[in-house]
């Protein structure tokens, strides 16, 4: 049985609408429908978000992107900063593409991914207690970020529908 070498991390993807420069430990909060993407750790069976420490002069956004790739195999787009945990980890809203739904849960991490990751799951963070998280003190900020992403999505949809209704209807030629 040979070792599987991980592929190189894809180019860091940061949303054009969010281009602030942060540095430090960072992670991704990924909302898929009404669920949160989490990793489940082999040793403890507890949940966590994909996160980690920076390499050299890497931005916090690229740290979140790279660690999500290394832990899940998912190439995310990093968006706005949602908050900072008590330990100083920056938590970013991240998006995945590829048509994932919460019904795809659980996912097996790629063979080359972080060996501490047992599974990738989609859960409702409000259906969990502190004791199922590797970093239980972060549960409140995880829930706040989860709600913030939902509110922003609804706000964007509301603005679009207001623009659609504000534009005059053209009469069809008779």
Task: Please give a structural write-up.
- The chain has about 170 residues and is α+β, with helices and mostly antiparallel strands.
- The chain has a single domain, classed as Nucleoside Triphosphate Pyrophosphohydrolase.
- Strands 1, 2, 3, 4, 5, 6 and 7 form a 7-stranded mixed sheet that branches.
- It is globular.
Task: Examine the coordinates and then state which fold CATH places here, giving the name of the CATH topology.
Answer: Nucleoside Triphosphate Pyrophosphohydrolase
Query: What about the largest sheet?
Result: 7 strands, mixed
* CATH class assignment: Alpha Beta
Uncertain regions spanning at least 5 consecutive residues: 154-166
Indicate the proportion of strand residues.
15-25%
Proportion of helical residues: 10-25%
Distance between the termini: 74 Å
CATH superfamily: Nucleoside Triphosphate Pyrophosphohydrolase
Shape: globular
Q: Let me know the number of strands.
A: 7
Derived structural class: alpha+beta
- What's the architecture, going by CATH? Alpha-Beta Complex
What's the gyration radius in Å?
18 Å
Overall mean confidence score, pLDDT:
83
* Tally of structural domains: 1
Helix count, per DSSP?
2
Helix-strand pattern: EEEEHEEEH
